[in-house]
Amino acid sequence: MMLKRNGTAIAFVLYAVVLIASLTVYISLLPFNLFSSSFWLSLVTLILAETAVWFYAHYWIQNYERVNRMIPGYTGLGVIVVGYLAAVIVYSLLSDAFLPGAYTILHILTLAAAVVIGGIILIFINFTAAKEEETREQVAALHEMEAALKRLLGKLPAYEEPQLSELKSVLAQLIEKVKYSDPVTPESLQMTDQQMLYQIHLLDEELSNAAEGDIEAPPFDLTLRRLRELGQSLTLRNEQVLISK
User: In whole angstroms, what is the distance from residue 54 CA to residue 59 CA?
Assistant: First the structure.
């Protein structure tokens, strides 16, 4: 947090220095260009471009983690912003070479091009971020499923041997199958993951209550059948994921 505040403060100081320097130069030229439309257009667009660079730097500092995941997109956006500033400066230096109407059209076209290209890049960034978030949620669901199954290993009722060993073996196989399952689930199969996760949490709750003595432990056959059904559901789910790709 401190680094963000310091970075923002430094960026703002640099922005203020550049803005004051630009205004100072233009004010010194004001008596000679008071009625020149190109002069005022150059001043307004320069301030606009410098402000855009400031907002870009401020966003980068405040959202470093997000930006760091989308380096190509935000780098492209930075090129557009800095490129627009460079174009405005060049136009200002060459303003006398253009007719007033042509100079205005040039600025409008440059600004429009920067906005359109920047907008396309932003659409790309938002689309990529949404896809990454969707994938992250899918991976989290499978990881949660694996963690819940591992918790079940420590909550199995005190069944007699070899029943307890059989349950542990089936559960270990199920954990291994979840671990190596493809976490990227198509939207049509996401409900399947949620249903399996719900079944695991339900079994976890029942075994926890049984361990605390609140209810009787479920029969061995029932527990074994539910674990095997989970395994079958996971196998079917993995087959459907493979077919969909």
Answer: 9
The sign one gets for the Cα dihedral 23, 25, 27, 29 is negative
In this structure, what DSSP letter does residue 154 have?
Answer: T
Cα(53)–Cα(169) distance, rounded to whole angstroms? 60
- pLDDT the model gives residue 82: 94
145 within 8 A of 197, measured Cβ to Cβ? yes
Query: Could you check whether the bond before residue 162 is cis, i.e. omega within 30 degrees of 0?
Result: yes
Cα 218 to chain centroid, rounded: 43
Maximum CA extent, the chain: 100
Q: What angle do CA 102, 96, 33 make, to 5 degrees?
A: 105
Query: 81, 45 in Cβ contact below 8 A?
Result: no
Stretches where the chain sits below pLDDT 70 are: 1-4, 31-32, 34-35, 137-138, 158-159, 185-186, 210-215, 217, 245
63, amino acid identity: N
Residue 159 is given by DSSP the state P
Domain boundaries of the chain, sorted by first residue: 2-132, 154-244
Q: In degrees to the nearest 10, what's the CA dihedral of 32, 35, 38, 42? A: 70
Residue 215 · residue 209 · CB < 8 Å: yes
Q: Please check whether residue 211 is in contact with residue 154, taking contact to mean a CB–CB distance below 8 angstroms.
A: no
| pTM > 0.70 | no
Query: How many other CB atoms are there within 10 angstroms of residue 7's CB atom?
Result: 16
3-state helix, strand, coil in the chain (%, to 5): 85, 0, 15
121, HSE (Cβ side, Cα atoms, 13 Å): 18
